[in-house]
Amino acid sequence: MPWLALDFAERSAQGDLSEVCGVEGIPSLALLNPDLSIVTTDARGKVNKDPKAETFPEGWAPALVPEVEDAVDKLNTETCLVVMCEAAGLKEDAIMESLTAAAKSMKDVYVEHNDADPQAGQDAATGQGERGDLSAADAG
């Protein structure tokens, strides 16, 4: 394996880490900041999309409004809004701006009212939490 792993003797730490990151099965990949705050608990797709980590770390953070191909796993497990706007032409940018503004507002309100950290609000806005998924599809 090209990454570090906990020793078997530290399996209780592994269990704690799995709980914090919401790991329910394998394979699973979570990204942590140097201060151990969570960047994302859903990084598996990022490895497939960017195997050389050319956009890491900024490009690996959850998008407020992900492209549908980046949220495929959620289509079967979360409530999703999928916008097909291939024929919208120049309006596609306006649609994405509206969805992003709504997702940001939802994240901000969630964090403010739940006294939560920004990652929790991000989870709510992207569907990793319990409030649903805002997904935009670029059908082209």
TrEMBL record:
GO biological process: negative regulation of protein ubiquitination; negative regulation of Wnt signaling pathway
Top-level taxon of origin: Eukaryota
Chain residue ranges for the region called Disordered: 112-140
GO CC annotations, alphabetized: nucleus
GO molecular function, one term: thioredoxin-disulfide reductase (NADPH) activity
UniProt-recorded name of the protein: Uncharacterized protein
Source organism per UniProt: Prasinoderma singulare
